[in-house]
Write a structure and sequence with these properties.
The chain is α+β, with helices and mostly antiparallel strands. The chain has a single domain, classed as Jelly Rolls (Sandwich). The chain contains 6 helices and 14 strands. The protein has helices at 4-15, 28-40, 57-68, 74-82, 99-104, 236-240; strands at residues 89-90, 105-112, 117-118, 122-129, 134-139, 142-150, 152-157, 164-167, 171-174, 180-183, 189-197, 203-209, 212-220, 226-233.
Length: 245
C-alpha cells in the first residue's frame, strides 16, 4: 500500500474527532492530541517488508466475518485495504495462562518496533479478540487508544468499576498505568490500537494467588510474543497510581 503513514494519520485523526461514549476525564482531549501528533510523526520513508507467515487459528475462524462486518469509515476502509499485507501472531505465550486465552488474543502490527512503519515513539496495529475472552486486569506505562472496527468490547478501568461497552465506530482511551481488563461476549471483536508516550517493554497483570493480589510482568520477545519474566506483591503505591479507586 502506498502512503500508508499519511493515510493512517489522516484516517485515525478523523475517527478520533467523534466524541467518545466514555471520555477519559479532564485530560481526554490532550491525550487524543498526543496520539494524533504521534501518528503524524510516522513516515513512509521508514518502511520495511513484513513476511505474512501462517494465520493463527483465531484469524482463520473469525477474520472473514469480522472483515465483512467492518464499519464503513475511512479508518476501517484503510484497514480493509491493508488486510492482505498483515502479519498476525498470538500475543501471549506462557504456561501460566490457558490455551483459550493465548489463542484468543492475536495481533497484526502496523507501526512501531514491528510492522511496516518503523517507529520508536508510537505503536499501532490491529487486535483481534475471540468470543468469550477475558483479558485480565493489567497496566502499562503507555497511553492506549482502542478504536473498534467490528463487534464490541467491554472495558473495565479498575477492579470494582462498571465496564464500559465500546461498539464499532466508538473508541476508548486508557491513560498511562490505568489498570484495566477487556471482555468479549458471544462474538469476536476487532480493534485498531495505538500506544504512545512511555513504550517500556512491560505489561503488568494483576492476579490473585492464594487469595493475595500480586502483579506479573510480561515482556515482549524479539518475535513479538510476550512472556512472564517476574512477579511481585501488589503494593499500595502501585494501586494508588493505577486508577483502581
Amino acid at each position: 500500500m502506498r502512503d500508508l503513514a499519511t493515510n493512517l494519520h489522516a484516517a485515525f485523526a478523523e475517527a478520533l474527532q467523534t466524541p467518545a461514549t466514555h471520555p477519559s476525564g479532564d485530560h481526554h482531549d490532550a491525550m487524543v492530541k498526543q496520539t494524533v501528533v504521534g501518528l503524524a510523526q510516522l513516515s513512509d520513508s521508514a518502511r520495511r517488508h513484513v513476511d505474512i507467515g501462517p494465520y493463527p487459528d483465531a484469524l482463520t475462524h473469525y477474520g472473514a466475518d469480522l472483515l465483512a462486518q467492518m464499519i464503513k469509515t475511512p479508518l476501517a476502509e484503510l484497514m480493509r485495504d491493508l488486510w492482505s499485507e498483515l502479519h498476525w501472531y498470538e500475543i501471549f505465550s506462557d504456561a501460566s495462562i490457558s490455551e483459550t486465552l493465548s489463542k484468543g488474543l492475536i495481533t497484526a502490527p502496523i507501526a512501531g518496533t514491528r510492522g511496516q512503519l518503523v517507529s520508536e515513539t508510537i505503536l499501532s496495529g490491529i487486535f483481534l479478540l475471540a468470543p468469550h475472552i477475558h483479558y485480565p486486569l493489567h497496566q502499562h506505562p503507555a497511553l492506549e487508544i482502542y478504536y473498534v472496527l467490528s463487534g464490541e468490547i467491554h472495558i473495565c478501568h479498575g477492579r470494582d468499576k462498571a465496564p464500559m461497552r465500546i461498539s464499532a465506530g466508538d473508541y476508548s482511551l486508557t491513560p498511562p498505568d490505568q489498570v484495566h481488563s477487556l471482555t468479549t461476549g458471544d462474538s469476536p471483536c476487532l480493534i485498531i490500537y495505538t500506544w504512545t508516550g512511555d513504550l517500556a517493554n512491560e505489561n503488568w497483570w494483576w492476579v490473585k494467588e492464594d487469595d493475595v493480589w500480586i502483579r506479573k510482568c510480561w515482556q515482549r520477545e524479539a518475535s513479538g510474543t510476550w512472556k512472564v519474566v517476574h512477579k511481585e506483591p501488589l503494593r499500595d503505591e502501585i494501586i494508588a497510581l493505577s486508577g483502581d479507586a
